[in-house]
Amino acid sequence: MANFFDEMYSDGNSSVRPHYNEFSNWLNAQTAETIARKRAEADLIFRRVGITFAVYGNDAGTERLIPFDIIPRIIHAQEWATLEAGLIQRVKALNMFIHDIYHDQNIVKAGVIPAEQIFRNAQYRPEMQGISVASDIYAHIAGVDIVRAGEGEFYVLEDNLRVPSGVSYMLENRKMMMRLFPELFLRHKIAPVDHYPDMLLDNLRSVAPVGVTDPTVVVMTPGMYNSAYFEHAFLAQQMGVELVEGQDLFVNDNHVYMRTTRGPKRVDVIYRRIDDDYLDPLAFRADSSLGVPGLLSVYRAGNVTLANAIGTGVADDKSVYPFVPDMVQFYLSEKPILNNVPTFQCRKKEDLQYTLDNLKDLVVKEVHGAGGYGMLVGPASTKQEIEDFRQRVLAKPDGYISQPTLALSACPTYVESGIAPRHLDLRPFVLSGKNVSLVRGGLTRVALKEGSLVVNSSQGGGTKDTWILEK
């Protein structure tokens, strides 16, 4: 991956990009001892506050600190303006798509998307067919993963519309940088992100059921053993609302209530961080102890808002991702501002053959995979790993897509050997309610292993503060 766009340097690392000049001057004035001390302080504070994530798989039950890098990722105002416009456009189209497939299905009738891509999709919920949801909004919170490649062009890598996580790290990273290096915020005009919880609460209140003027909002968590539990508790605390589990809620007279010390209290909006399958044991998985019996019937009646909506996952499945630019044109009659990464759909005979012939050069992903699991990064894999993956693809072609291995942009990062470039992505968080909006920032994830393109925390990735410079 020798040829990649460097966020901080241009001309083969011979000059600093203008929007990094002030930071570069500051960085060059710091001693190694100062930086080492600040990094240790950050680790100590993150651990003390409990900013960790649970690990699944071989190390199940353990918790890790997500590595935090003190060199920020800086984006100038003009670039952000394009990104923001593209993200708002994309999320608008995605919400229109989800509403359409659960109602008139015009995009299927028009032949833009094959019917089997929708109705055979594991995330499609026939129970949602014909249900009206508040303001026709399904993805109230979207985390859209953006990568930069080539000469610095932005691409959408994937859309996370079910229960997107990571916004708490965006907020805590900013607090940490302001605590460690207050002088940097005097030197730069950096767009704030700390108002995100207020924006989120306003957004959730705006999509309350019809007729509810003072809605009660709660955050619903599967519990403390979930990998993102810190975030669930953090957001509830920051919004000033209750953090609840399924056992704290019950259905009566076609409404949802919360058990409190003062008696039952009606709940109007549930920001749920639980997958569809576990929400209501009467409608989905009967063995779920995480959900609320009867919740779907209340939802169908329009007496509670779920954010995000049941069935939203059909739009963030990787097999549907290739069609999002078509959605933008179909619903908005606009040219997409942000491009997809070129994608081969292994369900197609010619795409399957191309993928099998070029496995060593491609990234191959399970259409339902997440967190960096269920994927092959061809250039970083052994011959045996490639052959094993070939058999998996051959056994279930429609379960995979492939993409070229992009030379993701990189940013200088503190690693064991000192400062070195490491590849990264960006996850801005888009809120949809009465309006579509986002804070000027996002979660930058960085692959800390040299040459690695996998930024997920579960795969050893870290995070950086993301600065959007104001004009």
Structural summary, described in words:
This protein is α+β, with helices and mostly antiparallel strands. The chain folds into 2 domains: 9-340 and 428-468, no CATH class; 344-404, Dna Ligase, domain 1, CATH 3.30.1490. Helices cover 30% and strands 24% of the residues. The protein is built from 13 helices and 25 strands. It has helices at 21-28, 32-49, 77-101, 106-109, 115-119, 167-180, 182-187, 196-206, 229-239, 295-300, 324-332, 349-357, 383-395; strands at residues 9-10, 15-16, 52-54, 63-65, 68-75, 141-149, 153-160, 217-220, 242-244, 249-252, 255-258, 265-267, 269-272, 305-307, 339-340, 344-345, 362-366, 375-377, 400-404, 410-415, 418-427, 429-432, 436-438, 443-446, 462-468. The protein is globular and about 65 Å long. It comes from Collimonas fungivorans (strain Ter331).
Rg over CA atoms, rounded to whole Å, is 22 Å
Distance between the termini: 33 Å
The major pleated sheet works out as: 5 strands, mixed
Helix content: 25-40%
Report the total helices: 13
User: What is the number of strand segments?
Assistant: 25
Low-confidence stretches: none
How is the largest sheet built, in terms of strand order? 5-25-24-21-20
Taking all residues together, what is the mean pLDDT?
A: 92
The helix/strand class is: alpha+beta
Number of domains: 2
Which word captures the global form? globular
Relative strand content: 15-25%
Please name the defining characteristics of this protein.
Dna Ligase, domain 1, 471 residues, 5-stranded mixed sheet, alpha+beta
